[in-house]
Design a protein that fits this description.
Layout: H1 2-15, H2 19-27, H3 31-53, H4 61-84, H5 89-110, H6 116-135, H7 146-171, H8 175-198
Subcellular location: Cell membrane
Membrane topology: Multi-pass membrane protein
Family: Belongs to the TMEM8 family.
């Protein structure tokens, strides 16, 4: 029982590593991204609790897991939209809502046994980032902070290593080691998201001198 509680507390605390990234979104007044980020934290907390204590917290563990996966995927896609650096806020708004909707639909299509549709969605948005950063004129795209980008990539590589490590410990049924690896993965992923959100300035913030076109949707 103590081992179960300890693992849950560790995962719950390390989920808080996403809070610095949420603070960046709050400062930049990215309300939709902030909503998705907070929802990701909440659903992750309830999923971890339901799994650790083998109980139902309004929803079953599997349903919390599903929602957590959908929101996590959407959160990553929203980051991709941010990295695309569109100055026209109409593009940003459309891409955000398409990302959230497709994350939900594609996860529902894939279920638990496949990830083909989700992979395709991620590849499309990553391609959008690469295309924008590689083929767009400098005056049509927001600047990119390379140092923050390097920091984000290093943290992301570290998180990936911890993810593979957690898989190894899970197969070995070493639950405590698995919990530690998962916790470290969450912390490194949180740092990666934090630096990634800082790589590109939020051009629709009133605190920024670079004001983009006003959106016709708000």
């Amino acid at each position: 029982m103590l081992l179960t509680v300890g693992r849950f507390v560790l995962l719950a605390l390390t989920d808080a590593a996403m809070l610095p990234a949420l603070n960046v979104m709050k400062r930049n007044r990215r309300h939709f991204e902030l909503f998705v980020g907070i929802l990701q934290l909440v659903t992750s907390f309830f999923f971890n609790a339901a799994e650790a204590f083998n109980t139902q917290l309004f929803l079953t563990e599997i349903k919390w897991h599903f929602i957590s996966d959908v929101v996590s995927l959407a959160y990553f896609l929203l980051l991709c939209v941010h990295l695309m650096g569109y100055k026209d806020e109409n593009h940003n708004i459309i891409l955000r809502y398409v990302a959230f909707s497709c994350a939900w639909i594609f996860k529902t299509k894939d279920g638990w046994n496949y990830i083909a549709c989700e992979e395709m969605l991620v590849v499309c948005y990553l391609f959008g980032v690469l295309y924008r950063r590689g083929c767009t004129r400098a005056n049509d795209i927001s600047p990119f902070n390379k140092q923050y980008g390097v920091n984000a990539m290093l943290c992301l590589v570290g998180a990936a290593c911890m993810w593979f490590t957690s898989i190894y410990f899970d197969q070995d049924e070493d639950h405590m080691a698995w919990g530690v690896a998962e916790g470290l993965m969450h912390m490194l992923a949180g740092a990666a998201f934090y630096y990634a959100w800082l790589t590109v300035p939020c051009l629709d913030s009133k605190k920024d001198d670079l004001i983009p076109m006003q959106s016709s949707y708000v």
